[in-house]
Design a protein that fits this description.
The protein has one helix at about 100-105, and strands spanning about 25-35, 45-50, 55-65, 80-85, 90-100, 105, 115, 120-125, 130-139. By secondary structure, the protein is an all-beta fold. It has one domain (about 25-139): Immunoglobulins (Immunoglobulin-like). The radius of gyration is 17 Å and the shape is globular.
Length: about 140
């Protein structure tokens, strides 16, 4: 070990997952839809969120992406977008994330930023440990 700057890979789960937070109400996620653009370089991800609780509240919805068949090793989930949504009790809203070249590209073995065709997994939820919707799509 060095002087406190070394990377340590230790077992166990974090006490609080990325995006963890508390709310005074509950939210339901539904209707995940992914539309790929004809050029294969972007897509639109929409979903519906409903406040199913008795109080007004806000939810920070997070979109994670996984490139399932990348030519170089990729993390199992990467945060690619987030938005804060305020809803009254019983209120629903359909919201959209746009994934463009920046979000869909990776660095290949030659250190070039490229969009590789293949299978991707979209994950939407309240935190990295609280994924509510998942869907695969192909570019």
């Amino acid at each position: 070990m060095g002087h406190g700057h070394d990377y340590m890979d230790s077992p166990g789960d974090p006490l609080y997952s990325f995006g963890h937070g508390l709310s005074y109400t509950s939210f339901e996620y539904s209707n995940l839809l992914i539309r790929s653009a004809a050029d294969g370089k972007s897509c639109e991800v929409s979903y519906r969120i409903t406040n199913i609780g008795n109080r007004s509240g806000a939810e920070v919805v997070q979109l994670y992406l996984r490139d399932v068949v990348a030519s170089v090793s990729q993390p199992p989930m990467l945060l690619k977008g987030f938005t804060r949504i305020e809803l009254s009790p019983g209120e629903s809203r359909t919201t959209t994330f746009n994934l463009g070249a920046e979000e869909l590209s990776i660095y290949n073995a030659g250190l070039e930023r490229v969009i590789e065709p293949g299978l991707f997994k979209v994950m939407i939820g309240a935190s990295s440990a609280d994924i509510r919707l998942t869907e695969d799509f192909t570019l």
